[in-house]
Amino acid sequence: MHVAGIDVADKALAVVIRTGEQNTKVEDFANTTSGHQALLARLTKAGVERVCLEATGAYHLDLALALNAGGLALMVVNPKAAKRFAEALMTRTKSDAIDAAVLAEFALRMPFEPWQRPAREALELRAYARRLSALTEARTQAKNQLHALQQSTTTPALILEEVQLAIAETDARITRLRTAALALIETEATLKDTFALLTSVKGIGAASAVQILGELRVLPPDLRAKQWVAMAGLDPRHATSGTSVNKKPRLSKAGNRYLRGSLYMPALSASRHDEHVKGYYRHL
Which domain of life is it from (predicted)? Predict the structure, then answer.
């Protein structure tokens, strides 16, 4: 049986193909749409029957969707299971290539549990949420541009009118997409219940809840709190070498920028209006 193990990182994929008792030399692909298609072509050409990769939150999902759509049998394993398997193999060193080889071995030896593609509603909601994020960013840029133009006495009235019209059109598009997203949430019980829980939290309104739910609902439900935090890039990064050792820890910002962005305004609102969050914020 031909199997492949894929170590997934933010920007790169390390791939090892196992044929019989032999592993291929590690191959690297970009963790992008074009990189996924190139990897799919490589795996198909090699006759790979099963693929194993580790659940890494936002990093692995689009790859899993691409491989699944390409017809490959796919297994996504819990990081703890992969770690324990590596320990059982007495793997003492760690690198992307070694991790990929361990995952290929996992696919060969362990019972195969096919990856379950997220529900259509969850994927559609993520698409709505990301488009809303892009439109919101565009509206903010247009408003900033309008403010700058209004400060100049040489800006023609027609230019101001044109920018104002663009803002109004973007507002209408945001309203239309958000309405569609809310209607979609109403059609699925789990989405509806989770949305109600999110909006019950002080600082999280309907707009933020759509963005947050769109990113979280497509991910494995068994992730631990630390994994959720790291997935959003909100985990602290400590400087451990050189002259930086005395600097304060900073957010890694290495995770899902959509989720991180969707949490900003709710966190800001809660830090001002929720006494518990306000106290914690002051403590920081």
Answer: Bacteria
